[in-house]
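Re: the request from the purification team.
They wanted to know what the chain is likely to look like in 3D before they choose a buffer screen. I agreed to run a prediction and write the result into the notebook, where they can find it.
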Amino acid sequence: MNFFMMHKYQSIEENLLYDAKVLYSLLEENKSKHIDELFSEFAQKQGIALSISIERILFLSLSFLYSTGVITSDSNMIKKVKL
C-alpha cells in the first residue's frame, strides 16, 4: 500500500502525510504529550475509533515526523521541536 498517494477507494486515515499533519497540529509548543493521549485526541478530532491498523498508521506518521526532525521523543512523550 502506498501511504503517500490518495485515491477514491482509500480512507483519509490511510494517508500518512495527512495523519502526520493532524498529529503535528495537535502538539502544542513547549509541551510534551504522551503517545496514548495524542492518539486519543486524533481519534476524537477525526471522529473515528482507534484500532490496531489505525494505530500502526499513526506510528508511521510519527516516524515520518521524527525523521524530518520536527518532533522529538523521550520514552513515549512526544514534543514539537522549536524551528
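For the purification team: The helical segments are 16-26, 35-46, 52-68.
Please add any questions underneath this entry.
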